[in-house]
Design a protein that fits this description.
Number of helices: 12
Strand content: 15-25%
Bound molecules: iron/sulfur cluster
Radius of gyration: 19 Å
Structural class: alpha/beta
Largest sheet: 10 strands, parallel
Distance between the termini: 48 Å
Number of domains: 1
């Protein structure tokens, strides 16, 4: 008997015509700036409290010696950087950081491990325990562990994981210029397992990787056609780290602030329900620039002195900014 071919599922919405989607996004991205901001703010108000910002804290639970070669990352074993190298932190240490994050106003605690793929051993069991405990503390637990297998995604869901972060980083077209040790499709496979397990997908990227405007448009299209769309979209700006292949690019050709704002506004319009997170790169941004990002639809920041290996504004500065703007910090986690 001839068996019907197994239908290969995809992380993407197959009914979406990518060229038409890109064209639509390009039109939005290129709108006159006031019109773009108006449209983004209108959608933002429809789906969110436009005065509220969520604070998240990111903990680097396993640092460095990563076999991947992401051109922006100080934790890659392929690059000579001064980044710290250590194995998986013990559960108590991580929970101590989680408590500090909560005391500093975070409602979401993200744990990042520099692995190519999540291991299948006691370390994964320890991560599951961290997830359970962070949830018990009343925060949204999020992890980023590299590529996952289907059963690992299911175990993370059972442990109470709120979100799994797996960034696509840039457009499919520019991807191989940034990373050579994995493909864009590898990313989509893990995203699909996360979607199927019923975990929220946290997926975004980095601006300033030498991408063109067309790449930024294609990047937003790749996010917007995920099905379901990501609940969380971190938008990072490259923080150039000496020793990484993209250091020179970041120093000599940083992304223009208005391109960052346009990317945020267009992402807000295309993914109305998502938390759009203004992530790495805030240390170099003025208060006015960050405010424009909020107006364009960003509604979350990462708080805490460190964002994995790069510096981040002190929490007290963030509190001051939010107060100066008459905005509020979200106090309720979605758990
Ligand atoms: S970004 Fe992540 S996967 Fe890439 S080298 Fe750094 S730690 Fe490894």
């Amino acid at each position: 008997m001839v068996q019907a071919p197994i239908e290969k599922k995809s992380a993407n919405n197959s009914s979406v015509n990518t060229d038409e989607l890109k064209q639509k996004i390009e039109e939005i991205y290129n709108l006159p700036f006031p019109e773009l901001i108006f449209q983004a703010q209108t959608i933002h108000r429809e789906f969110h409290n436009s005065s509220e910002v969520q604070f998240c804290t990111l903990s680097n639970i396993k640092s460095g010696a990563c076999p991947e070669d992401c051109g922006y990352c100080s934790q890659s074993a392929h690059h000579k950087t001064e980044s710290e190298v250590y194995g998986l932190m013990n559960i108590e240490e991580v929970l101590k950081e989680a408590k500090e994050a909560k005391d500093n106003g975070a409602t979401r605690f993200c744990m990042g491990a520099a692995w190519r793929s999540a291991p299948d051993n006691y370390q994964f069991e320890n991560v599951l325990e961290m997830v359970r405990s962070v949830k018990e503390m009343g925060m949204e637990p999020c992890v980023t562990l590299g590529m996952l297998k289907k059963d690992q995604a299911e175990k993370l869901k059972e442990a109470g994981l709120h979100s799994y972060n797996h960034n696509i980083d840039t457009s499919p077209e520019h991807y191989e210029n940034v990373i050579s040790t994995r493909t864009f499709d590898d990313r989509l496979e893990t995203i699909q397992y996360v979607q199927e397990a019923g975990i929220n997908v946290c997926c975004g990227g980095i601006l300033g990787l030498g991408e063109t405007k067309a790449d930024r448009i294609s990047f937003i299209a790749s996010l917007a056609k995920l099905d379901p769309q990501p609940g969380s979209v971190p938008i990072n700006v490259l923080a150039p780290i000496p020793g990484t292949p993209l250091y020179e690019q970041g120093v000599t050709n940083p992304v223009d602030n208005f391109e960052v704002i346009r990317t945020i506004a267009t992402s807000r319009i295309m993914m109305p329900k998502a938390q759009v997170r203004l992530s790495a790169g805030r240390l170099e941004m003025s208060d006015e620039m960050q405010s424009l990002c909020f107006i364009a639809g960003a509604n979350s920041i990462f708080s805490g002195d460190k964002l994995l290996t790069t510096d981040n504004p002190e929490s007290s500065k963030d509190f001051q900014l939010i107060e100066k703007l008459g905005m509020t910090r979200r106090v309720k986690a979605e758990i």
